[in-house]
């Protein structure tokens, strides 16, 4: 905002003079300090000024009674704003040390009054308010009590000074000075406001006396003054209103060449004030609209043609001032958007700065002399803003002095040409715009501005900066593939590189210019290519087109100097730059083993329209801790000359390295050398994947397949795995799954190798899970139980195998996993290992269930003491393998004895059971002791082995048999009955009744007849059985019917008085299980009958 | 009428640019390129509501003293940009919409060509004449022929 006067841009503050403060006095100094230096942020908008006793106040102009004959000479006076900001006091405060109870009260009162009077005299004609502040040392009277002396003396003082009591204040010089000054400040501010209001009324009152024809300037001036006074009063709304009116009045003035600068200057001032107020009043839209119309209105009012640059300067300033105001408003919290922010205004300002520069070049080129005498002398002392020093205050109507006018124009043109650095102005504005566009997310706009900035640097021959800026932009434009823009940027950059004779930059740019994504013509490309070749052969390049002769000459000298240095140069250009050569490289396989040959295919495509020769191609391969540059395999038919658009394929071979820790190698770069190998050469480094296609690939990978062509169809494969040579050791296991519970299960491990290996250690370990380890044993010989097995083999010859059997015994069912690991040394003492996991399942060989039967072969749930019964272990094979039972045995429980303890052979011996076949063993036992709990019947042991394998050993499995309830029996009953009878042939049935108890038992036997038999014997009899004795009862039966016939049923009853000895139900149970119900009766042979 | 019409691909590279004034083509290229900033911003905001997705017309992107630039983006992120002269104040929003609609139809026809590879420059006579028609250049040719 340098172009605006400071008084305009300053924040208007009410001006308050402090009189009578001696700043060498410490008390006064601290009071001054409290007012001036310790301002609070929320303090009133005031400016304090220390007035000394010798101060000279500005003189008051004589008041004009009528404007009738007054012709204004200009619009705004230069001194007016400054006067009101810094000289005309709104309030003057007289400080005076005086206590209410001062002993010399009267004298001091008079002195104070005389000071006020002298001030009043000095301020004659002004409306400045006068106030008195008494600095008091005495303590304040406590609130509520009235100090009569003080009241009385205050009134007296006011009278003496001819002031109202409202303008008398006292300032206790005590602890809370800041609090008092703060309050005083507000009171004084109120006084100041009333002053400015009064001034405002005075200016307003002039208005009636003005007429539109003669006083157009005054309309503007008065409105401006009113607005400014309101600003001083901090009434922004009213100020805004008056500025707007001033602006409107200004527009009514007819603009001609002589007053155009003045009107534009004032318009610019008013517009500045308006914009600032509108932003401050939170009316940003109105501010922008006002600014737009302001610029639109004045855009065409160019003023004199010879001073066109002045117009552009003015427009440029308008934009930059507004942009800064806008930016300031944003800093105060105004939100801005992408399409409306200060960047646009900075950009417009930059545009007009360019136009100014152009106008200056056009108009001032021939001006070389500053006219004498200086027509611009006294520019600083002009009475009005925006007037010409050579014709101040002249009115439109007067004819211009032509010679002076011409001299003045020449002076202005000379100044414009010599003193203004147009480029820096534009660069500064562009810089501001760039940062704004960056903030508001317009990256492309920003790029455009950077290109413009580079153009400006080019104009001022700062080629280094041009190249720095453009190199960055190239990358951006290239990545978005805008060929026209890319070409434009390249053109400028090439020129800059040529003019600065920067070999490396020139080469980089030239290489890119030859690429496919630029729009250069064929001839131009050919020229550029020649230039590359020239540089590589140490010759200066031909000049870029469209350069002026003097620039060219200068550049040629530089080039010659560069080239004649005779130093060799080798540039590396990485793949941040584009060029006319495309490269892709790929491994032929995704995996290689160590020491095998790795082959890389390199595809090189020449996109230039003519023949190109390279001097060398190599590939850089990196892995962790590995880096090597591999040249391509030379072959005669594949030379390094490429005709236009040709694609060639080269091979690159090397031995796969042994890497330290990582397993991957990648093609880091493909290096192409251009030019003489030794002295001048450019190494182009490409990434192996190819750039352009990569970008397209990401967008439409499947569509790229449509393009065809060798190069496009190459899929880059830039990483490959390096693997250790695959060991040829194999471990094979053989076994007959599943394993059977409890057996020593044999697992045959076969180790074989295609190479000779030695020192083979084989570890077999159980992979432990869910506590199975205690229940699994390993052994090499079925004797020593181990938790893991190691065995060693010295050497294994190629293509032979070594086998070893490992035995495993499991004591519960489920799956078992083993890790079999072979560690071995290979031919070159290299340790290597191989491991496999092996798993098998364990199943039960058989299920054993126990069945109990009575002597009568009825299923039985309870046993009775001394009553024999059968126990039958029932074996069901569940093994998929046939099982041969070697032997079985039973070990009975303590309470049982075997009926016939003959050591006879097991009936199941040598029986082979296939899956789900069953075998049953049988033993007759007699329980001897009863109990309340089921008594254990014994342990059944089966010795068995696999029937299908001769090498297995006998496994002994023991099973606990089902326990049995055994009860006491008071009565034993035994029936003797022949196995069968004949019809009509008597047969004898006898029942032996035993009394096991210690009581005498009386029983009633009842035989109930049925139609199948006649019988002889007691039908009903009571018998007595002595303790531990037996009684026999007999019947003779005569069968009448043949067949399986029901016997007459015997029933036993206990007399009711003896029931405590023998339970009735127990008795029924005895009968149930001891007396046969049926008997076979054979028919009588007919022949015998006859 | 329109002074420049452009089709921008979804990777923001130009697929087709036609200017009435070929001498100033570079200037228009820059203008269109910078207008992508605003298109991108609008598309980012537009994604938030379902209703906006259906509206392809993006309205005026920005205006300078000389030109007004309008944008349109298809659902496949193909952007159409039309530059109009600022002095032509009579052109209403609806008419600009119509221009875009015509352009969209012409574009859809052009890319339906089985020999067109998506992502390539559009080089179609029919598309070209459709654009000329929108720019009001074709009419003149017809008149001359008559």
From TrEMBL, chain A:
Domain Gryzun putative trafficking through Golgi: 940-1050
Domain of life: Eukaryota
GO cellular component: cytoplasm
Span of domain Trafficking protein particle complex subunit: 261-514
Stored PANTHER family: FOIE GRAS (PTHR14374), TRAFFICKING PROTEIN PARTICLE COMPLEX SUBUNIT 11 (PTHR14374:SF0)
Name of protein: Trafficking protein particle complex subunit 11
Source organism of this protein record: Ceratosolen solmsi marchali
UniProtKB/TrEMBL annotation, chain B:
Record's keyword terms, sorted: ER-Golgi transport, Transport
Superkingdom of this protein's organism: Eukaryota
Compartmental location: Cytoplasm, Perinuclear region
UniProt GO cellular component terms: perinuclear region of cytoplasm
Pfam families: Sedlin_N
Example GO biological process: endoplasmic reticulum to Golgi vesicle-mediated transport
Principal location: cytoplasm
InterPro entries in UniProt: Longin-like_dom_sf (IPR011012), Sedlin (IPR006722), TRAPPC2L (IPR044760)
Homology family: Belongs to the TRAPP small subunits family. Sedlin subfamily.
PANTHER family: TRAFFICKING PROTEIN PARTICLE COMPLEX SUBUNIT 2
Annotated protein name in UniProt: Trafficking protein particle complex subunit 2-like protein
Lineage: Eukaryota, Metazoa, Ecdysozoa, Arthropoda, Hexapoda
């Amino acid at each position: 905002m340098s172009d605006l006067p400071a008084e305009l841009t300053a924040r208007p503050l009410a001006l308050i003079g402090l009189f009578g403060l001696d700043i060498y006095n410490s008390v006064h100094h601290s009071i001054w300090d409290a007012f001036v230096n310790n301002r609070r942020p929320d303090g009133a908008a005031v400016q304090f000024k220390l007035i000394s006793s010798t101060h000279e106040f500005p003189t008051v102009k004589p008041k004009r009674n009528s404007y009738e004959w007054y012709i204004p000479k200009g619009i705004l006076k230069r001194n007016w704003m400054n006067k009101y900001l810094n000289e005309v006091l709104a309030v003057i405060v007289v400080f005076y040390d005086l206590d209410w109870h001062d002993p010399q009260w009267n004298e001091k009162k008079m002195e104070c009054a005389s000071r006020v009077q002298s001030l009043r005299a000095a301020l004659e004609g002004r409306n400045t308010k006068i106030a008195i502040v008494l600095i008091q040392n005495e303590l304040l009277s406590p609130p509520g009590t009235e100090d009569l002396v003080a009241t009385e003396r205050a009134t007296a003082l006011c009278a003496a000074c001819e002031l109202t009591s409202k303008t008398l204040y006292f300032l206790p010089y005590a602890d809370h000075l800041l609090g008092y000054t703060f309050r005083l400040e507000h009171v004084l501010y109120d006084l100041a406001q009333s002053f400015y209001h009064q001034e405002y009324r005075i200016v307003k009152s002039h208005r009636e006396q003005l007429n539109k024809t003669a006083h157009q300037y005054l309309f503007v001036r008065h409105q401006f003054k009113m607005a400014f006074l309101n600003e001083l009063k901090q009434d922004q709304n009213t100020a805004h209103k008056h500025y707007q009116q001033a602006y409107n009045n200004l527009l009514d003035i007819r603009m001609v060449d002589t007053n155009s600068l003045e009107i534009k200057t004032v318009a610019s001032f008013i517009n500045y004030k308006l914009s600032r107020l509108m932003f401050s009043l939170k009316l940003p839209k109105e501010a922008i609209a006002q600014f737009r119309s302001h610029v639109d209105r004045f855009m065409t009012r160019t003023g004199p043609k010879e001073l066109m640059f002045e117009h552009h300067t003015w427009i440029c300033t308008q934009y930059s001032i507004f942009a800064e105001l806008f930016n300031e408003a944003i800093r105060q919290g105004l939100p801005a958007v992408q399409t409306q922010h200060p960047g646009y205004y900075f950009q417009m300002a930059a545009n007009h700065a360019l136009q100014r520069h152009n106008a200056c070049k056009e108009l001032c080129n021939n001006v070389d002399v500053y006219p004498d005498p200086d027509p611009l002398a006294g520019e600083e002392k002009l009475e009005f803003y925006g007037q010409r020093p050579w014709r101040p205050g002249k009115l439109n109507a007067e004819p211009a002095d032509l010679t002076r006018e011409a001299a003045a124009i020449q002076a202005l043109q000379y100044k414009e040409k010599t003193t203004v650095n147009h480029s820096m102005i534009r660069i500064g504005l562009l810089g501001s715009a760039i940062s704004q566009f960056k903030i508001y997310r317009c990256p492309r706009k920003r790029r455009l501005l950077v290109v413009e900035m580079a153009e400006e640097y080019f104009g001022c021959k700062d080629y280094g900066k041009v190249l720095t800026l453009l190199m960055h932009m190239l990358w951006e434009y290239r990545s978005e593939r805008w060929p026209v823009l890319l070409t434009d940027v390249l053109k400028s950059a090439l020129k800059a590189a040529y003019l600065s004779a920067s070999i490396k930059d020139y080469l980089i740019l030239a290489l890119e210019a030859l690429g496919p994504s630029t729009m250069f013509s064929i001839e131009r490309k050919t020229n550029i290519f020649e230039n590359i070749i020239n540089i590589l052969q140490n010759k200066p390049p031909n000049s870029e087109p469209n350069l002026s002769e003097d620039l060219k000459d200068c550049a040629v000298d530089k080039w010659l100097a560069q080239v004649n240095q005779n130093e060799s140069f080798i540039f590396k250009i990485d793949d941040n730059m584009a060029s006319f050569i495309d490269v892709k490289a790929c491994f032929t396989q995704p995996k290689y083993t160590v020491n095998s040959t790795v082959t890389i295919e390199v595809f090189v495509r020449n996109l230039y329209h003519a023949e190109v020769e390279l001097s060398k191609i190599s590939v850089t391969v990196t892995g962790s801790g590995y880096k090597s540059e591999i040249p391509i395999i030379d072959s005669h038919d594949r030379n390094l000359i490429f005709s236009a658009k040709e694609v060639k394929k080269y091979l690159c071979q090397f031995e796969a390295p042994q890497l330290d820790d990582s397993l991957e190698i990648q093609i880091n770069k493909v290096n192409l050398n251009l030019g003489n190998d030794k002295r001048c050469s450019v190494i182009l480094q490409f990434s192996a994947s190819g750039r352009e296609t990569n970008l397209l690939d990401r967008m439409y990978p499947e569509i790229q397949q449509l393009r065809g062509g060798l190069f496009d169809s190459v899929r880059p494969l830039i990483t490959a795995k390096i693997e250790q040579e695959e060991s040829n050791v194999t471990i094979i296991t053989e076994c007959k799954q599943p394993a059977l519970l409890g057996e020593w299960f044999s697992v045959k491990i076969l180790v074989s190798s295609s190479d000779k290996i030695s020192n083979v250690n084989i570890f077999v370990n159980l992979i432990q899970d869910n506590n199975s380890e205690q229940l699994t044993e390993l052994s090499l010989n079925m004797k020593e139980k181990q938790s893991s097995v190691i065995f060693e083999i010295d050497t294994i010859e190629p293509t032979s195998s070594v086998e070893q059997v490992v035995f495993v015994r499991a004591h519960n069912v489920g799956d078992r996993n083993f890790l079999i690991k072979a560690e071995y040394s290979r031919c070159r003492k290299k340790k290597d290992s191989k491991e496999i996991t092996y798993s098998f399942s364990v199943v039960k060989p058989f299920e054993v269930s126990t069945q109990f039967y009575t002597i009568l072969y009825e299923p039985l749930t309870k046993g009775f003491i001394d009553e024999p019964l059968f126990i039958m272990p029932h074996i069901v094979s569940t093994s998929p393998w046939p099982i041969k039972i070697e032997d079985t045995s039973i070990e009975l429980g303590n309470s049982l004895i075997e009926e016939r303890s003959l050591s006879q052979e097991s009936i199941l011996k040598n029986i082979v059971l296939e899956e789900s076949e069953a075998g049953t063993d049988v033993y007759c036992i007699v329980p001897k002791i009863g109990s309340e709990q089921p008594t254990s019947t014994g342990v059944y042991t089966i010795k068995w082995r696999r029937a299908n394998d001769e090498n297995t050993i006998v496994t002994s499995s023991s099973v606990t048999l089902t326990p049995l309830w055994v009860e006491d029996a008071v009565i034993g009953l035994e029936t003797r009955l022949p196995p069968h009878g004949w019809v009509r042939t008597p047969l004898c049935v006898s029942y032996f009744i035993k009394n096991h108890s210690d009581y005498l038992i009386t029983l009633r036997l009842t035989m109930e007849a049925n139609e199948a038999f006649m019988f002889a014997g007691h039908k009903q009899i009571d018998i007595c059985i002595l303790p531990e004795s037996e009684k026999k009862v007999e019947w003779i039966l005569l069968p009448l019917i043949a067949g399986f016939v029901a016997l007459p049923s015997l029933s036993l009853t206990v007399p009711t008085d003896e029931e405590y000895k023998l339970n009735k139900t127990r008795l029924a149970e005895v009968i149930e299980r001891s007396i046969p119900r049926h008997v076979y009766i054979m028919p009588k042979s007919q022949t015998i009958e006859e | 009428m329109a002074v420049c019409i452009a089709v921008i691909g979804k990777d923001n590279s130009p697929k087709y640019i036609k200017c009435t004034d070929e001498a100033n083509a570079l200037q228009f290229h820059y203008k269109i390129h910078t207008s992508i900033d605003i298109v991108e911003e609008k598309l980012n905001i537009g994604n938030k509501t379902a209703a906006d997705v259906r509206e392809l017309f993006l309205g005026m992107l920005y205006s300078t003293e000389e030109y007004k630039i309008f944008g349109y983006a298809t659902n496949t992120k193909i952007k159409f940009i039309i530059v109009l002269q600022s002095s032509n104040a009579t052109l209403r929003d609806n008419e600009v919409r119509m221009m875009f609609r015509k352009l969209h139809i012409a574009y859809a026809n052009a890319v339906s060509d089985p020999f067109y590879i998506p992502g390539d420059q559009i080089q179609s006579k029919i598309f070209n004449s459709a654009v000329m028609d929108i720019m009001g250049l074709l009419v003149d040719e017809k008149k001359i022929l008559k």
